Amino acid sequence: TGDLAAGMPFNSNKSIEHGFQNGLNPQPGATVPATSRLPTGSTLSEENGTQKTGSLAPEGVNSSIEPLDRVRVDSSGQVLTTNQGVAIADNQNSLKYGTRGPVLLEDFILREKLTHFDHERIPERIVHARGSGAHGYFECYEPLSQYTKAAPFKEAGKITPVFVRFSTVQGERGSKDTARDVRGFAVKFYTDEGNWDLVGNNIPVFFIQDAIKFPDLVHAVKPEPHHQMPQAASAHDTFWDFVSLMPESTHMLMWVMSDRAIPRSYATMQGFGVHTFRLVNENNESVFVKFHWTPKDGLNSLVWDEAVKISGADPDYHRRDLWERIEAGAFPEWELGMQIFTEEEADKFSFDILDATKLIPEELVPVRPVGRMVLNRNPDNFFAETEQVAFCTAHVVPGIDFSNDPLLAGRIHSYVDTQITRLGGPNFHEIPINAPVAQVHNNQRDGMHRQAINRGRVAYEPNSLAGGCPFQAGAGQGFVTFPERLKAKEEQGKVRGKPEKFADHYTQATLFYNSQTEPEKAHIAAAFRFELSKLTVPAIRERMISSLRNASEELATKVARDLGMKELPDRMPRAIDRVAKAEVTHAPSLSLFAKPGSTGIRARKIAILIADGSIGATATQVHEALVAEGAVPRFVAPRIGAVNTADGTAIDADASLENEPGFLFDALVLADGEKGVAALKADGHTMEFVKDQYRHCKTIMAIGEAQALFDMADVSPSLPSGDPDPGIVVGAGKLDSAIQAFVKALQDHRHPIRETDP
Ligand code: HDD
């Protein structure tokens, strides 16, 4: 590194190694200006790149950016090279002996290119293979030092950069987004005291109580091994065979059969840490905690028919939605909440807080808001960031600790282990997306793909040759495990078994079902009906109904009837007869309608159906009003391109009835104008469009003469009872007030009162 002079070309990605940032080998004039390291046209701003971790930063700032600059590559204005940096003269032809002669083995350019290509894929995640991620930050509302010394909660306004990956569980990497499935909700906090991964789901409970059952669960739900079907679906024999023999999964089944399993958007679903964790403060006092993420845009889900259709028209529906929200500046946001409780309180609960199939009703322990998370930057490169990100439940920081949940214990092992295969060795922590912003110093060395060039001859501790460094931090600064003791009555010696309260498999399944609104209950029943109707072995279906009877006789009866069963099978024997009396028997907080959010119609996708001959002025007025509300309206016409409006208003349709069908939109506006209505009528897609919008209970506005389209689609603007349909707005007369009514109706996202089954 000794001979770099000012102005000499060198690889700016290697500035750290050349000593420009750590000051070890300063070269006068050779410092890379920060601006030249940012890709042109990137979504990053220079201000973002200069913030330091933990500073009080304004919205949009992400201090994980600067450390990544080292590996960012910007090829604009550059020539093509080999991986050794040799410029390539011809990238079209392999090297031959004469143009009609054989290709020569010495063609190192061809061989390097093909060899790299042959190894482009890495193993996909065994679960959660399909996912999407984004960068953002967590902002703390107030210091939580009473409970925890964890870095993100140290002061009000403190910013901690995060990377979040959402995922489905069952499907393979290329599978559809809208499968009926649990969604992963994994957050990596790059705290200034090391990385903390909160690897959660969008459902607060889990199928099993002990990690020893996880491989069985996953083998059961994945495509069946003999024919690899079905993809990204639980509606098959092996899954229901397993869960019907594992009554501890009943509570989770209620959630998975509910609309929670078909979210409208990642931005409109909750997240949960699931397990009970510990918070530990500076005095080494500990309380228990459950983590909750609540979306600012409210909790919205799809309906099943919609999810099925979307999976065909746009398998990337959630990925696209996340990407577009961030690009549009409608940054997805969640509030982090904590349910904090003491060991003494936990001892008295009717359920065991170490049992991941149980939740703590908010009605029993309220959720305390502690901060917010904003996702404001899409990855630059999907593979480098979203695919290579490695979450591990073992990644905790001082102030956060584990409970004895046996499911969590298995996870602490499993995640690190899986990354070693998936990411090719023990150095996955050095991959830029996984590297902490806190410095790493230890005596771990070598291994596949090692990046760090550790200096000196000392790789052990204690040492004197390196002045004792790196030295252990001690209890004041380092991670110290909370010295939990088992109570005398719990002392049993080594044992394979479960605490008694784990055997109550049904109380909370009942609580969940009974706490749902009528439309939610109907969807749960319909989901059980759908899934169980797909089974080829009737005995599994019967066994499931016999277990469901213990959770809800109402639900079991309805599902059995819908499946054509003549009589109900006997109830499945319970693991224990007498269970502790539940503190809460009705928990309204468990309904999707309990968290409506606060942001109106932000990011809602609205189709404005228009055709040649439509009146453009009113359609444009609606478009502008919706944009002003933060919604995303699009003109959809029989074909894309300029619309020949009746009044000459210039409108460009960027979507067609064919390429963006009705179920991809949250709401519908039908443009006015006799000729336009006639043109829409003449296209068979229009009827499907309107019908799907109607059947999926969405908000529909017809301007003026467009009302005629309701008749054609056999859609009534009023309910069977004769009452007005709350989701249908007819824009006759003053358009302003009609638009207001439309926006208001759209805030509800859906109008289940209209729904019929089928
Ligand atoms: Fe897991 C991935 C969430 C139980 C073993 N899990 C994974 C991901 C999420 C979860 C969100 C994807 C992370 C990413 O985006 O890369 N898992 C959960 C939750 C669980 C749970 C909330 C229960 C409360 N998991 C669980 C158990 C085990 C695993 C009991 C094993 C004993 N999970 C894994 C894994 C994965 C994984 C095999 C696959 C890829 C990966 O870890 O990185 O190790």
From TrEMBL:
Keywords: Heme, Hydrogen peroxide, Iron, Metal-binding, Oxidoreductase, Peroxidase. InterPro entries: Catalase, Catalase_AS, Catalase_clade2, Catalase_clade2_helical, Catalase_core, Catalase_immune_responsive, Catalase_large_C, Catalase_sf. Its cofactor is heme. SMART domains: Catalase. Residues 1-70 are annotated as: Disordered. One of its GO terms (molecular function) is catalase activity. Its EC number is 1.11.1.6. Residues 33-54 have a biased composition (Polar residues). It catalyses: 2 H2O2 = O2 + 2 H2O. It holds the Pfam family Catalase_C. CDD domains: GATase1_catalase. Residues 81-469 form the Catalase core domain. Belongs to the catalase family. Decomposes hydrogen peroxide into water and oxygen; serves to protect cells from the toxic effects of hydrogen peroxide. PANTHER family: CATALASE, CATALASE-B. This is Catalase. It comes from Polaromonas aquatica.
